Amino acid sequence: MVGRRKRGGAGEPGAGTKRTRQNTYTYDKESDKMESAKFSAFYREQKIVGDDDWETFIESLRSPLPTTFRINNAHGWGVSFRDMLQEHFFAQMEDLVIDGEKVNAPKAMHWYPDSLAFSYSVSRPQIRKAEVLQAFRTFLMVETARGNISRQEAVSMVPPLFLGVQGDDLVLDICASPGSKTAQILEMMKADKDRSGGVVIANDADRDRCYMLLHQMSRIYPENLIVTNHDGQCIPTLRKDGAPILFDRILADVPCSGDGTIRKAPGIWKKWHAGLGQAIHPVQLKILLRAIEMVKPGGTVVYSTCSMSPYEDEAVVAEALTRCNGAVELVDTSDMIPQLKRRPGLLTWKVFVGGKFFSSFKELAESDVNTARAVCSLFPPEDGEALRLDRCMRFLPHDQDTGGFFVAVLRKTGAVDASIHRNRVYDPESGRVCVRDENEVTNAPTEKESAIAKKKKKNYAPEIKNEQYRRVREANPAFFKDMCDFYRFSDDFDCDSLVTVSVDGNGAAYVVSKETQEILNAKGIEKLKIAGVGTRVFVPANKRDPEFAARICSQGGALAAPYLPERTIDVSLRDAIKLLKRTDVPYSELEEKAQRALEDIRRGSALIRYQPTEEDCKHHPFTRVPFIFPTMLCTTVVQLHVKKEERNNMLKMMGEGPMELPAKKKAAESDSK
C-alpha cells in the first residue's frame, strides 16, 4: 500500500489503504441493514446521480457483485480460448435450472477488447449442485494458476485500457499491488507484435505486498519487469547520460477510502464517514504530483481510485492541474471505448466540515467552524469548466453492474518544477487561495509525523535492501559455465540475460530483457529498493546432485522451454495424466516416444511438455497452449515437480481422479487427521 498508512480497527476502511479488507466483515441481515444515513446525505449533496436515479443507485450498492474474469491475450490465442469456453462450458449453461431458478451463463463484457472479459453470478450452493459449474470452477482455478485467465473486478480492468500502452514504452505502475493492472500492462506489451523493448516498473510501499506482486506476475513469466519497494510520493529518480530517466506512461491507481467496493465489502456501510476521503486526499495528491514529475512531456498519466468521493477524485485532479499551471491537461476520452458507460466528472461539490457543508474555503473561513479541519485543495476550483473536469470519468455501479470507480487521463504538455509541491493556502485579505511563500518548506515532514513514522517502522517487517543485480556470467564464471554445459541453451538464447542478486553468483538466476538490464545499470540504481526482476528460471541444485549446478524452477519452465530443446521431453495426454497422478513414474511405463527421448538425455533437471492435440481438445476444455512441468530425471524414474493441489485441479480438468499418494504418505496423512 502506497503512501503513509493510517491504521484503523480490523476491517476498518481507514485512510491510506489501497484496498481495505472490509470483506472480512461478517454481514448479518437480521442485525444490520445495508444503509447509512451519513453516506446517503453526503452523496445526495454531491449530486453524483440525479434524484430520479438515486433509488436505483442505492439498490445496486446493496446487491452482490458479479464474478468477473478476463483472458490473457498476450500470445494471440485469446479469441480461440474464448470460443473454447463457449463450446465446452457456456453452451451447457444456457438452459441450466437449479431448484427452479435459471442460472445464467457468463456474459461477455463487450467494452473489453475482443470481448475477452466475462461477468457471471452464481452462488456456492448452486456450484455444488451442478457438475458443469464445478468443472468450470476447476477450469478457472487451473487456468488462473497458469496465467491464462485473471480473475479481476470489471472496473479494475478499465485504467490500463486508457493508458494506451505500446510494446516499446517505459511504464511505471506507481501503486501496483496486488498486480492485476500490472499484469494487464505486461500482457498489452507482449501482444504488440510491431514494437518491443518496453519495460514495466511496478512499485508498492508495502514490502509483503511487493512479494505477493512478484508471485502474481510469475504466472505470465515477464522478462521486462522490475518490482520496487518505495513510498509512491518519493520514488528515486534514475539517470542515464546525465539526464533523468522519464516514463512514457504512468498508472497511479492510488490508495483510497474504497467506498466504491461497498458491494463486495458491506462492512463499509457501518464504518463510512466523510472524513475518510479528507484524510487520504493529501497523500493521493502527492502521489499524483510525483507521477507528473516522472512522466515525459507528451506522456500520459492515468489517475484512478475505487472511491466515489470527489475529495479523492476531482479535487485531487483539479489541484494537480492548478499547480502545474498549464503544463498538464485532461485528455478527452469520449471517443475511446464507447461501449463502456461512464459519467462526466463533477465541476462542483461541497466539503463536509464540522457538521456542515461548504462550497468554498472562503465560506468556511467566514463561518464559526475551525478551518484547520480542512485543506484548501479539497474544495472545487473557481474555474472547473476551464480545467475541463468534465473529462474525468466516473463509473457507477448501476450503469453496468460493476463497482464504483474513478479514472482521469492526463497528458503532460510541458515541463514542471519543484514549485508544484508548494501547498496553496487561503489569504483572508484577498479572500482567495494562493501559493505559500517560496521560502516556506511544505514537503518536509513535521516532528510529529517523523516520530509516528519511526514508531510504525519498528512494527513492520525488515525493509527490502538496495541489492544490485549482476550478470551470472560476471558474478560467477565457473557456475555459469557449468550451467551452460549442462543445459546446452539454443543459439537464440542470450546468455547475458541471466542475472543474479547473490554475492557469489551461486543463487537464483533470473531472465531479464536487454532493456531491463539497461535500467538496472542506470545511475542511481543503488537508491532503488528492488524486490525482484524478470522471471526466476534457475535455482541452486541440491548439493547431493553434483552433476548439474542449477535446476529449473516452476515459475520459469514456460519461459525456458523454447531455449532448452535438449532437456524438454514431449509426452502424450496418457503420459501427462500418469505423471500427474503419481510421484514417481518409471521410464518403462511411459509411451515409446517418451522413452526414446529419455534414452540419451543426461539425468537431472528437465522439462515435461504436453501439447494438446486437436483430438484432445474435442474431449477436454484445453487450449493449444502447452502444459509445461519442471521435472527431475532420476536413474529409472521421472519425478514431476508440481504441487499436489495443482496436480489434482489439472486431473479434474482432464476428467481424472485425484493424485495417487504412496502407501507411506497415505498412512502419515491418515495419522495426522
Summarize the topology.
Elements: H1 37-46, H2 54-62, E1 67-71, H3 78-93, E2 97-98, E3 101-102, E4 107-108, E5 117-120, H4 124-129, H5 131-146, E6 149-151, H6 158-163, E7 170-173, H7 180-191, E8 199-203, H8 207-217, E9 225-228, E10 239-240, E11 243-244, E12 247-253, H9 268-271, H10 275-294, E13 295-305, H11 314-324, E14 328-330, E15 343-344, E16 351-353, E17 356-358, H12 361-365, E18 393-395, H13 397-400, E19 405-412, E20 424-427, E21 432-435, H14 447-459, E22 470-471, H15 472-475, H16 477-487, E23 498-500, E24 509-511, H17 514-520, E25 530-533, E26 535-540, E27 550-552, H18 557-560, E28 568-571, H19 573-581, E29 584-586, H20 592-599, E30 604-610, H21 614-619, E31 627-633, E32 637-640, H22 644-653, H23 663-672
Parallel strand pairs: 7-8, 7-12, 8-9, 12-13, 28-30
Antiparallel strand pairs: 1-5, 1-6, 2-3, 4-5, 9-25, 10-11, 13-19, 14-19, 15-18, 16-17, 18-19, 20-21, 22-23, 23-24, 24-26, 26-27, 29-32, 30-31, 31-32
Helix pairs in contact: 5-22, 10-11
